[in-house]
Amino acid sequence: MNIFALSGFSGATIAMLLLILWLSAVVSGLSGFGFSAIGAICLWLLPPTLAVPLLMALSSANQMMSLRQIRADMKPLHQWWPQGPAPFIAGGLIGVPIGLWLLHSLPTPVLMVIFGAFLVAYAAYSMATPANPRVLTGGWAIAALVGMAGGVVGGFTAFPGAAVVVWIGRLGLPKKESRAIVQPYIFAMQMVSLAMLTVQHPSTFNATFWSLFALTIVAVLPGTLLGVYIYKSLSDINFRRVSFSLLGTSGLAILTKGIGGLGIATGLLSVMSH
């Protein structure tokens, strides 16, 4: 049995997934985040319990390759606390189990609608206002809270970077400092989420999952390299514009999926009431 048969999906579906995930990789390589946000379109083709872990795994590969390309911009590990990614990661470790519980235990359309609407509104506001000076600090405690919020969101959407990107946007950090926080955080959260899924829901990683991973990773890695190449030519101002444009796009995708889920739920309730 070949890998296409093991996936259980048609050639047309695989082709759509490859296109979506290649674009996700380009976007993430360019901005340092947003792989799973753009990749959320896969939720129209795959069930969440398959799509979310797949996005986590592919996002991890994307981040690993991207980090290797910009490693000269990264701080050494001993500088990760308190001004680097370490406080965000510490908070995220608390948030991830909550997000994974939501993914497997509760209906998420309402949460997706709220989160998606917030991202769209915030991105529109940020694009309409000039870049802010670095007036917010907050310290490591605030960073840990932001990281925890990202961990919760990442657990059920595979998009942990949103909360951190929003917060860093308020700090007005240049693109190198921004990526030096966001990317290690996203990579850490995806790896923690995958490890917890392996322990709590080992059936997630079945033949279908691994066949889809093998089929789609070949589109993700070249897309990542292209995105990083584009990133290196961007100014800080254009990087900010791209980041918030992607946040808005991500929010719209999540909002649309949430509204669709609510519509399905409403329809089922209507049928059951008759």
Can you put this structure into words, describing what you see?
This is Probable membrane transporter protein. It is found in: Cell membrane. It is a multi-pass membrane protein. It comes from Trinickia symbiotica. Keywords: Cell membrane, Membrane, Transmembrane, Transmembrane helix, Transport. It is a single chain. This protein is mostly helical and about 270 residues long. The chain has one domain (about 5-274). The chain is built from eleven helices and no strands. It has helices at about 5, 10-30, 35-40, 50-70, 85-105, 110-130, 140-155, 160-170, 175-200, 205-230, 235-274. Helix 2 (about 10-30) packs parallel to helix 10 (about 205-230) and helix 5 runs parallel beside helix 7 (about 140-155). The longest helix has about 40 residues, at about 235-274. The chain is globular, with a radius of gyration of 18 Å. The N and C termini lie far apart (about 45 Å). The model has no long low-confidence stretch (mean pLDDT about 80).
